[in-house]
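Q: I'm a student working through a structural biology exercise. My instructor gave each of us a protein and asked us to get a predicted structure, then write a short paragraph describing it. Mine is PAS domain S-box-containing protein. I'm not confident about reading structure output yet, so if you can add a plain explanation after the tokens, that would really help. Here is the sequence I was given:
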Amino acid sequence: MGIKKEIEIRCHPLMSWDISNPILSLKSRTKEDLKLLSELSKQNNWEVDFAKELAMSYQTLVLTDLQQTILWVNAGFQTMTGYTADYALGKKPTFLQGEKTSEKVKSRIREKLSKGRRVSETITNYKKNGLAYDCLITIIPLLDSNQVITHYLALEREAA
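A: Happy to help. First, here is the predicted structure for PAS domain S-box-containing protein. I'll explain a few features afterward.
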């Protein structure tokens, strides 16, 4: 089963439990995210400690290929952006950007990624309802056993 098919099967909507008990839900979602990423890591020979990476505070995860096409988003994506996983899959994360998105920030992100480096920035994105929000983003290049970048994982959260 290809990576995209594997990921699509595992995307599911929020349940009322997620809304009524956010602390337990967050822990549960983190475990689900870790489990899925660990499985994908085995399939793609990624050499990354996802347990360590996911210890960082995040609301949503976005997995892209090298062309930055979205292959998977976690359940927090819809909560943070208003867009469903089905809508996001196959698009580039730039669909979240708009008039207040800084060209300088985008340039710094591109520059670091082109050098194979991890990048952390704050970028202005837009929710489905059109509201702008500051998104704290960390993008991690995912390397295979030959130290070749095969994908990118973005950990994102809305700035307070």
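A: Here are two points you could use in your paragraph. The domain at 3-158 is CATH 3.30.450.20 (Beta-Lactamase). Helices lie at 3-10, 16-20, 22-44, 50-53, 76-81, 85-88, 103-114. It's a good idea to check both against the output above yourself.
Q: Great, thank you!
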